[in-house]
Amino acid sequence: MKSFFNPVWILTEKEFRVEFRSRVAINGLLMFVLVSVALIAFSVGYVKLSPPVFFGLMWLSLFFSAMYGLSRTFVAETDQGTADFLRQLAKPSQIFLAKFLFNFLLSNGIILVLTLVFVFFFDPPGVNWFFLISGFFLGATALASCTTFLASLVAQADSKGALFPVLSFPLIIPLIMTLVSWTHKCTLENPGGLLWEPFSVLIAYIGITLTASLILFDFIWD
Amino acid sequence: MEIYLVAGILGIIWASLFFYLKRLEARVSELENEGKESHE
Amino acid sequence: MKPVSSAFQWFTGIWIFLIVISGMLLPIPYIPILKETARNIYFHVPQSFAMVFILCFSFWNSFQYLRKRDLRFDMKAESAASVGMLFGITTIVTGAVWADYTWGVFWNWDPKQTLFLGLLFVYGAYFVLRLSVDDPQKRALLGAAYNLFAFVMMPFLVFILPRLLPGLHPGAPEDGGANNPVFTGINLLIRVMLYSSVLGFCMLAYWLYTIRTRLLILKSKF
Q1: Is chain B touching chain A, with at least 3 CB–CB pairs below 8 Å?
Q2: ipTM above 0.85, yes or no
Q3: A54: how many CB neighbours lie within 10 A of its CB?
Q4: What is the spatial distance between Cα C185 and Cα C188, in angstroms, rounded to a whole number?
Q5: pLDDT higher than threshold 70 for residue A176
Q6: Cα C76 from Cα A107, distance rounded (Å)
Q7: How many other C-beta atoms lie within 10 A of the C-beta of residue A70?
Q8: B–C: how many Cβ contacts below 8 A?
Q9: Which residues of A touch C (CB under 8 A)?
Q10: Chains touching A by CB (3 or more pairs below 8 Å)
Q11: pLDDT-derived band of residue C113, with 50, 70 and 90 as boundaries?
Q12: Which tops the pLDDT comparison, C145 or A10?
């Protein structure tokens, strides 16, 4: 088991090193998050937002930032032609898991920054913060597990354009609906028992997307 | 009374669609045969 | 691809003709909100069944393509997906007209309606992905992978979430037959008619699928 996961850690570390070496990607992403929140603040900042609107806007800016950040998953391989080296170094499933792990950390980072900026700019509604943040964590995980595989498809297409959002949005519609119902329940008095349903949907979503991606990635990555 | 009219109209629409499909089917078969002959 | 026999075609034609006529003329139980529009159940519901039925062919052929790498399977998968799209669009249109008469507007943002639209977006994305790859083998590979990935997510869109979120369609929670009582007191006649109609539309979908596949195969030769 140790020998299977060793390359995964090494590749994840490599991903971080590549991203932070160029800096432009990370800083661009940070600016994207700030600009999108500022845009919302300029347009609706002067009204007191009701919880559904607050979280709706928050999920919206999260998904757009994530689309921007996660679409870069396999760009380095296709741009610099390093895919063959990766093939030599590790099995497809290891490469996929490393990419997934990186995307998982990235989307959690985006959500962390976004939450802080949102709380700073807007007056947040009273919620159960423990359940809300665990919902964010699950949502970011589900987002990463769904889009990592799609990014590998897009990386191989000839004309990329808006392909990544086009492919991912329909598949994350169920995710958005579940998360919106989750955050809505977090504004209630005692949400613990009510969250069981969206929780099981999210876990099933993560499980199914990860399994399907791991199986299909073997075919794509030849 | 209107329901007979609706049934009639829908029936006619479906019948014309059906015959259009029959013609399409025949045309595709024809093209397939042509392809076979020219191949030989 | 083997064409369907002439007997099959005539049987389908006469069967659906009989469904149309008897669906309109046979007595239907009086249901408060639906009234005579309840007859749409013989057209709206079977079309969505036919869509799922033909998308199973698309799934199966994509799977076969990944195993055997034969482009004919890819053409079958593509044509099945396009026939599925066609039935999806007719389902949406018949549903929207029905919704206008019973729920007041064409589009209610009912979860089932929204998620069904999401399903159409998935297959729209499938065609966009196919257009953005030039090499036929690669196009087939990426298309098949996306098709399989999307198909395993279909349960979320069609079966799981509509039953968890409150909505207007039958089967939604907190409904209790108030919005759409047609399924609560369903009688034998409606049941038999509904299943016969499902059979008819599935046969029609299969017929369209064979024609479309043969056309695609012809196109690839010239």
Answers
A1: no
A2: yes
A3: 20
A4: 10
A5: yes
A6: 37
A7: 23
A8: 46
A9: 149-150, 153, 156-161, 163, 166-167, 169-171, 173-174, 177-178, 181, 197-198, 201, 204-205, 208-209, 212-213, 216, 219-220
A10: C
A11: confident
A12: C145
Distance from the Cα of C197 to chain B's closest Cα (Å) equals 14
Residue B14 pLDDT > 90: yes
Question: In angstroms, what separates the C-alpha of C221 from chain B's closest C-alpha?
Answer: 9
Q: What is the pLDDT of residue C149?
A: 92
Whole-angstrom CA distances from A116 to A53, A127, A138, A139, C5 are 17, 15, 18, 17, 65
Residue for token pair 């070496």: A21
Q: Where is mean pLDDT largest: A2-6, A216-220, C29-33, C51-55?
A: C51-55
Most confident of A52-61, C33-42, C115-124: C115-124
> Mean pLDDT, chain C, as a whole number?
86
Identify the closest residue of chain C to B20 by CA–CA distance: C13
Eight-class DSSP state of C178: S
- Domains of chain A, by residue range, sit at 2-220
> Which residues from A are below 8 Å from C138, CB to CB?
156
